[in-house]
Amino acid sequence: MRAARSRFIAAAFDHGQVPTIACFNKATASLGVSFDRLIAALQTFVDDYFVPVWGTPAKLLKTTTFRKGAWAMAFLDDADVAHALGYHDLTPDGLPLSKVFVKTTLTVGQKVSVTACHELAEMLVDPAINLCATGPNTVFYAYE
């Protein structure tokens, strides 16, 4: 009997291109702000505050689902990992994906906009989820 292989997903995107991020809301809970305003505010954050410091621009695009060749930011109701307000991962195609858990975020008294901004920043700095830095006493810290 052969053991099933786990599928290894490697990052499959051009690090030299400005990514388009397909942002879609599948949550049934209220975000606390209109989705259009939230995406516009996140784009302003990227353009005015994030890019000047980190140099990693992005174009956020409101969609209804994943878009071929685009990174993704999905707003979902409930966390699929215990105690996670959000996280970023890779899609099966190897493209960066941020998940924002709306009900979970609201249940702990946080704002969806803060979780979304946090996950967006992490995804832009470490899209392949593979960067770390060495601290004192050879302790490694993940960028995310």
Helix and strand topology:
Blueprint: E1 20-25, H1 35-54, E2 59-62, E3 71-76, E4 86-90, E5 96-101, H2 102-107, H3 112-125, E6 132-134, E7 140-142
Parallel strand pairs: 1-2, 1-3, 3-5
Antiparallel strand pairs: 4-5, 6-7
CATH topology: Chitobiase, domain 2
- Integer count of domains: 1
Could you describe the largest sheet, including whether it forms a barrel? 5 strands, mixed
Beta content: 15-25%
What portion of residues is helical?
Answer: 25-40%
Alpha carbon gap, first and last residue: 39 Å
List the helices and strands in order.
Answer: EHEEEEHHEE
Oligomer: single chain
Mean pLDDT: 91
Structural class: alpha/beta
Query: What topology, given as strand order, has the largest sheet?
Result: 2-1-3-5-4
Overall, the morphology is globular
Radius of gyration: 16 Å
| Total count of helical runs of at least 4 residues | 3
List the uncertain runs.
Answer: 1-6
Number of strands: 7
Determine and state the CATH class: Alpha Beta
CATH architecture: 2-Layer Sandwich
